[in-house]
Write a structure and sequence with these properties.
The complex is a heterodimer of chains A (175) and B (376). With 175 residues, chain A is mainly alpha-helical. Helices cover 54% and strands 0% of the residues of chain A. Chain B is an alpha/beta fold. In chain B, β4, α7 and β5 form a beta-alpha-beta unit. The chains are: A mainly alpha (175), B alpha/beta (376). Chain B: Belongs to the 1-acyl-sn-glycerol-3-phosphate acyltransferase family.
């Protein structure tokens, strides 16, 4: 599935569906392909950071830079796998894993105090002082039984965030 | 009205978004129930609402929808319909197109052979010259419209020449200007184009009065605002037509109106234009095709059918800001033409949104964290 042609064969759709563990229906994949081609304006087979940022709703999101690092250079199959976390068919475990990946910028499976502080900074900007941010994070960490030097792994995240009403779903428009 | 020469995205200058209507009222907000209770680790780590918004924007967003040309469904796949469609192609390209080219060429010959003498020989007699040039411009626009078999239905009272009034319309393609111009010789404010269009702009459109702007220049706004004000004061000038969206939109949506036309202290006369897509999609997607290709596409289609509504003139209400005025007129036009409103600035095609919007989100979250820290 090299360069983005405007049609997708049945074989391609099935391959993508396999890759994302059937979290999307075939119609949704076809729809996502149209969207992919729409965003990939220069037809390079992947969506560049610039092209993502040309969507104003994405550009104003506080976590856009972080997500861009994860979205960089993805081809269509990987793009669908990335979005599969947001499907209604995705499991809670998958969603928590995704959140963990957003925090774990070094990719070594451990989230440090600094990682959490960085994300908190993205979300709050200049509206909380750096010192206050550190204090708040330290305080809630200690109340939850961790400390500043703790290294959180995926199972910690599952314990903290594992709540059935964690809502992280997006609907793919299908005409 | 045309694509910028390069795709460099620069962040828009802050002056462009003072007094914007509150974007938060329009943007979809996920699970926005106010979180209550003492702040816990889970509340800081749970970034799911923000991630959901980001993913939602990746999957579909209201801004890109405004500029999507919707191609008609291909219908020539049936053994009976296919030969009909082929016949249609033959007629359109073989008969209609050459006829139209002929009509247009004839129109240009008549126009140029009248315009050039009038322009140079009547240099002394300005009033008569202007009157004749106006009629000739209306004439060549009629020829253009005929060359697409344009069927335009005008509703409402024809614009009258009065000082201190401007006309605003929604924008789909540069042909909007031609469709309106064949009825009334407007002066217009336009982005200067390269090529043959630019040549036409600098020669013929000068005679009806035109104001040039350069959307990539930030300082340009003040110069243009002054030119606008000067133009509407002059009693002898042609009525001014402005497209406040600042860019071509696909005739299903309207983007936010720029306030420039609404702070001149004049009456604003809204005009709504709606094209009938059954015949041809008149949206000029300037990123996808040049204006020449766009015209050729129109000339090889069956017809350009549209409705033009001249709506009731509006003035600034007491206590209303120019931005509110602009939004009110946008409401009137969108309602009349059946267009959906989106809260985006058309110039976001060429630049990034200002950091102000992201900061608003950050502030909301920061305030919520600090507030909950107080709760025990």
């Amino acid at each position: 599935m090299g360069t983005t042609s405007s049609t997708l064969t049945q074989y391609d759709i099935e391959e993508v569906q396999e890759h994302c563990n059937h979290t999307f229906s075939q119609q949704e994949i076809a729809s996502l392909y149209q969207r992919f081609c729409q965003l990939d304006r220069n037809g390079g087979g992947f969506i560049a950071a610039d092209e993502f940022l040309s969507v104003p709703e994405f550009a104003v999101n506080p976590l856009s830079q972080r997500l861009l690092r994860m979205l960089d250079g993805l081809n269509f199959k990987e793009f669908v796998a990335f979005l599969s976390t947001f499907s209604s068919r995705a499991t809670l475990q998958q969603k928590i894993e995704f959140i963990f990946k957003v925090y774990d910028s070094s990719g070594n499976g451990k989230v440090t105090f600094d990682d959490m502080l960085n994300v908190l900074r993205d979300l709050t900007g200049q509206f909380i002082s750096e010192q206050q941010r550190e204090e708040v994070l330290t305080q809630v960490l200690e109340e939850a039984g961790y400390n500043k030097k703790s290294l959180l792994v995926l199972s910690d995240f599952v314990k903290i965030l594992g709540n059935p009403d964690l809502k992280m779903e997006v609907e793919v428009p299908v005409d | 009205m045309a694509n910028a020469p390069d795709n460099k995205l620069t962040s828009s200058s802050s002056e462009l978004d003072l007094d914007r209507p509150n974007l938060e009222d329009y943007l979809p907000s996920g699970s926005m129930q106010e979180p209550r209770g003492k702040l816990r680790l889970r509340d800081l780590l749970d970034i799911s609402p923000t991630l959901t918004e980001a993913a939602g924007a990746i999957v579909d967003d209201s801004f890109t929808r405004c500029f999507k040309s919707n191609p008609p469904e291909p219908w020539n796949w049936n053994v009976y319909l296919f030969p009909l469609w082929c016949l249609g192609v033959v007629i359109r390209y073989g008969i209609l197109f050459p006829t139209r080219v002929l009509v247009l060429t004839l129109g240009w010959i008549i126009f140029l052979s009248s315009f050039i003498p009038v322009h140079f020989l009547l240099k002394g007699n300005d009033k008569l010259r202007k009157k004749l040039e106006r009629c000739l411009v209306e004439l060549i626009c009629s020829f253009f419209v005929a060359s697409w078999t344009g069927v335009v239905k005008y509703h409402g009272p024809r614009p009258s020449r009065r000082p201190k009034q401007v006309f605003v319309a929604n924008h789909t393609s540069m042909i909007d200007f031609i469709v309106l111009e064949q009825m009334t010789a407007f002066a217009v404010i336009m982005q200067k184009h390269p090529g043959w269009v630019g040549l036409l702009q600098s020669t013929i459109l000068e005679s009806v009065g035109c104001i040039w702007f350069n959307r990539t220049e930030a300082k340009d706004r003040e110069i243009v605002a002054r030119k606008l004000r000067d133009h509407v004061q002059g009693a002898d000038n042609n009525p001014l037509l402005i497209f406040p969206e600042g860019t071509c939109v696909n005739n299903h949506y309207t983007v936010m109106f720029k306030k420039g036309a609404f702070e001149l202290g004049c009456t604003v006369c809204p005009i709504a234009i709606k094209y009938n897509k059954i015949f041809v999609d008149a949206f000029w997607n300037s990123k996808k095709q040049s204006f020449t290709m766009h015209l050729l596409q129109l000339m090889t289609s069956w017809a350009v059918v549209c409705d033009v509504w001249y709506l009731e003139p509006q003035t600034l209400k007491p206590g209303e800001t120019p931005i509110e005025f602009a939004e009110r007129v946008r409401d009137i036009i969108s309602l009349r033409a059946g267009l959906k409103k989106v809260p985006w600035d058309g110039y976001l095609k060429y630049s990034r949104p200002s950091p102000k919007h992201r900061e608003q989100k950050q502030q909301i979250f920061a305030d919520s964290v600090l507030r909950r820290l107080e709760e025990k």
